[in-house]
Amino acid sequence: MNSSGREQSAQGAEPSFDHAPFGQPGCPPAVTELRERVAAFVRERVMPSEPVLDAGGPAARAVLGTLQEEAKNAGLWALPLPVEYGGQGLPLSAYAHLAEAEGASDHGPAALGSAALLDVLMLGRHATEPVRERCLRRLAAGELRSCYAMTEPDTPGTDPARTTTRADPGPDGTWTLNGRKWFITGAGDADLVTVLARTGENLSLVLVPTSAPGFRVVRELPVLGAGGQWEIALEDVTVPADHLVGEPGQALRIAGERLRLGRVLRCLRWLGQAERAFGLMRDRARSRSHTAGPLADRQLVQQLVFDALLAIRTTRPLVYEAVARLEAGADARVETGLAKVAAARMLQQVADAAIQVHGAAGLGPDTALPALFRTGRAARLLDGPDELHVAAVARRVLRG
């Protein structure tokens, strides 16, 4: 679920983030230079295009295509994707520093070709050879768009065991799917959807082309008034046998693998968005004056700035600890849960503080703050609500 804002705006100049660079101290020099190039591309090329990109439609697709070509020409395309599919193969420990800068805009990952990372890795590890040959290089090149459909309207998203969408085997080895899914990022423009479905008593993943007869986009679902999420229906959609992703009944294992990395990537991007909100708040406090003097001299404003910076600086180590454990192949469930809850709360706090310092201007269309606040609030539900992660981490710790 992506909470980018579908709103026209005339956003002002974005902060340069010079108060605290993206990423952890000790970032290798080669990665530092690349991070600065990514940050500049997002700030100078992606952010000014956000009003068109947020609005969606043909104009947005054209602008995104232009940005993607520029990223390719600049050598910034598909930095974390595997080399064998056309990416640059950066390991997670290096890409993490870039993901903060890239994620400062909701559209940064799509513009720079990393939005497909989860799908490319999942299909590269678990899809059949024919599917890998047909799809992976095109996904990595941005020629195909994909999405992931798990949640259903009538069942809790945190309880996939209650999935009702079915994939029934046919006599010729095909699979026929029936069901509904919702809150799917990018389904309106996707070419491929990976669907969580019941196969007999178990759960499996099935790759569905959106051009297949019986596939239907039901509606767009605004999130706090902004678009980008979709509901779909599958009505006797038949796909070939080789569209099963992994073995039958292995959906939860594959989904867990995907979700752990996905949550960490979201955390990194939320750090980037919090840095953006913090920069806007800092610049507003410096530049705005009242009869009693600059906002920056007010103790209550200073308290907001301090608390926001403290939240960013204390959250970042949690996120990078999860990154390190994931890359090492260690059990990262506790670290990922801590990072996810901390990063979601942190982004909501920082965006809210930035709006408070801006006053009424922080609620209007002239800054990115409404979209950043919306992302922060939605973050506490994305990939599982806070309560799910709190309970899961506490149980694991208490059991030793």
From TrEMBL:
<dbReference type="InterPro" id="IPR036250">
    <property type="entry name" value="AcylCo_DH-like_C"/>
</dbReference>
<feature type="region of interest" description="Disordered">
    <location>
        <begin position="150"/>
        <end position="172"/>
    </location>
</feature>
<dbReference type="InterPro" id="IPR046373">
    <property type="entry name" value="Acyl-CoA_Oxase/DH_mid-dom_sf"/>
</dbReference>
<dbReference type="InterPro" id="IPR009100">
    <property type="entry name" value="AcylCoA_DH/oxidase_NM_dom_sf"/>
</dbReference>
<feature type="domain" description="Acyl-CoA dehydrogenase/oxidase N-terminal">
    <location>
        <begin position="32"/>
        <end position="143"/>
    </location>
</feature>
<dbReference type="InterPro" id="IPR037069">
    <property type="entry name" value="AcylCoA_DH/ox_N_sf"/>
</dbReference>
<dbReference type="InterPro" id="IPR050741">
    <property type="entry name" value="Acyl-CoA_dehydrogenase"/>
</dbReference>
<dbReference type="Pfam" id="PF02770">
    <property type="entry name" value="Acyl-CoA_dh_M"/>
</dbReference>
<feature type="region of interest" description="Disordered">
    <location>
        <begin position="1"/>
        <end position="29"/>
    </location>
</feature>
<comment type="similarity">
    <text>Belongs to the acyl-CoA dehydrogenase family.</text>
</comment>
<feature type="domain" description="Acyl-CoA dehydrogenase/oxidase C-terminal">
    <location>
        <begin position="253"/>
        <end position="398"/>
    </location>
</feature>
<keyword id="KW-0560">Oxidoreductase</keyword>
<comment type="subunit">
    <text>Homodimer.</text>
</comment>
<dbReference type="InterPro" id="IPR006091">
    <property type="entry name" value="Acyl-CoA_Oxase/DH_mid-dom"/>
</dbReference>
<protein>
    <submittedName>
        <fullName>Acyl-CoA dehydrogenase</fullName>
    </submittedName>
</protein>
<feature type="compositionally biased region" description="Polar residues">
    <location>
        <begin position="1"/>
        <end position="11"/>
    </location>
</feature>
<dbReference type="Pfam" id="PF02771">
    <property type="entry name" value="Acyl-CoA_dh_N"/>
</dbReference>
<dbReference type="InterPro" id="IPR009075">
    <property type="entry name" value="AcylCo_DH/oxidase_C"/>
</dbReference>
<dbReference type="InterPro" id="IPR013786">
    <property type="entry name" value="AcylCoA_DH/ox_N"/>
</dbReference>
<feature type="domain" description="Acyl-CoA oxidase/dehydrogenase middle">
    <location>
        <begin position="147"/>
        <end position="236"/>
    </location>
</feature>
<keyword id="KW-0274">FAD</keyword>
<keyword id="KW-0285">Flavoprotein</keyword>
<dbReference type="Pfam" id="PF00441">
    <property type="entry name" value="Acyl-CoA_dh_1"/>
</dbReference>
